[in-house]
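Table S2 (continued). Query chain:
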Amino acid sequence: MEETKRENQKNLFYRIERLPPYVFEEVNRLKAEARAKGEDIIDFGMGNPDMPTPEPIVKKLIETVGKPRTNRYSASRGIIGLRRAQAAYYKRRFGVALNPDSEIVVTLGSKEGFINMAQAITSPGSVVLVPDPSYPIHSFGFILAGASVRRFPLGAGEDFQDAFLRDIDRAAANISPPPLALVCNFPCNPTAQTADAGFYKELVALAKKRGFFILSDLAYAEIYFNPNAPPPSILEVAGAKDVSVEFTSMSKTYAMPGWRIGFAVGNERLIHALARVKSYVDYGAFTPIQVASAEALNGPQDCVEEIRGVYKARRDILTDSFARAGWRIPPPSATMFAWAPLPENFRAMGSLAFSRMILKEAGIAVSPGAGFGDGGDGFVRVSLVENPQRIRQAARSFRNLMKARGAKGAAREGRGARSDQTDKASAH
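Corresponding output:
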């Protein structure tokens, strides 16, 4: 058995071998097995919007598909109409002026843009700073590009922004070679934390002082629940373009996840590097999809309000129904996720064992926090992608699980599961 394992490891390709174990794999496998048996799984795992794409966007796609020549190769950096629409969005939403020709690239979703940016700017030995916990691609993209990733605690509580800045300053001063870039993501996936304009002002000043770029992931710019505090863009800060590129996505804002449209905007040098890499690897998204995306950005924005309202209603139902079931989940102020601390009776289990347990015993799928970094192991991420009836059903199932297990039995098994996880980690 061990000999076979060692032989398999020898056969791994270099870049694949550098990737850490994929923590979500076991939960995904168990979910697939349960569904194959006909079991009903309430799936809060993947952040995959379930709402239909608004009708005007779909109509524009259909209309454009029927026109001549739209089936041909597109442009790798995106059609000019869509880049202009994104520039108009940034001006309207953030008061930021962008040049569609030199400061905007259309990407195949923000994830692809992020990975290709890492390929474009990384040299052998480059160091990149990534918070812990964070969305996996923030690390994986640079690992695949050959960089060295240094994780630092994201922090929690009301003063997390100050701690974030202090940790970055300390790390940038002491790391050799100095960091090439810092990844930040607010509103944050998975923790749902938000940052204010003052934080970005200090972060830009720090990047200039220490000589690193900032890669800002703003995928959840329009999924927020305080109408008086919409999330800012880092590019609102004077001089931010000197050091920053920002990634946004159509996926969550307009319920267009499978359409695969996103953007990178900001620093001309970085945008040029990304555009050049993309010119070698793709011909851009299907033209009718880009035309329909421009329609989304330029048209009435009532649909964005409606989508935001759906997520807010689900958030409220989730936190209320699970609190009554015995699991207090803090209501997120933004994103389509709740960052849920493990219930007290199950904290000894760790996030992976807990996720496995509620999937098997309650038919509820969540994402283990350990998949987002060591700092996430006391949490699970709950995606707001089920309707109110299913959310309440999940809460009832969890309450029944609590009753069936009892606090003492859960804690005792949790300690054993934690020990089992430690043994497995040592085996890796």
